[in-house]
Inverse folding.
């Protein structure tokens, strides 16, 4: 049976930190139309996702938290995925609480919020070292 793997979008696939000025909860930049749509792809993400999608033992999805405070969030995330990872567009799960995700693995940068709530294996993604984090995550998932 294939492992169901959820990849976070903000901070894992996309460089959320690179688009904000002040690292605070709910930075004001994220409420500006276009914020989520224009995030840069994290270094190493495209190659890593291609490797994971090619692995016949894995079933890859995006598991991303959307905010109800920015009504454009969900639409912009879908547009971003369509541009950068079109193979995952119909494999997006947008939730307000990632503890609702049901799968085997969650790759996410927010250890404090989700590591103890997700019911499967949690792989912590270090968004300060994205290429290294992707290499480590791929190695762990493909073993």
């Amino acid at each position: 049976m294939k492992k169901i793997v959820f990849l976070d979008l903000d901070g894992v696939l996309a460089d959320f930190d690179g688009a904000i000025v002040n690292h605070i909860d709910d930075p004001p930049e994220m409420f500006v139309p276009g914020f989520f749509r224009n995030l840069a792809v994290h270094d190493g993400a495209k190659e890593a996702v291609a490797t994971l999608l090619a692995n016949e033992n894995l079933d890859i999805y995006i598991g991303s938290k959307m905010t109800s405070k920015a009504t454009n969030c969900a639409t912009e995330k879908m547009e971003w995925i369509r541009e950068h990872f079109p193979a995952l567009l119909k494999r997006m799960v947008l939730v307000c609480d990632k503890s609702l995700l049901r799968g085997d693995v969650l790759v996410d940068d927010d250890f404090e919020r989700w590591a103890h709530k997700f019911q499967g294996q949690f792989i912590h993604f270090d968004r300060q070292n994205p290429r290294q984090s992707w290499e480590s995550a791929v190695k762990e998932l493909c073993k």
The longest helix spans residues 73-84. Helices lie at 45-54, 73-84, 111-114, 130-141.
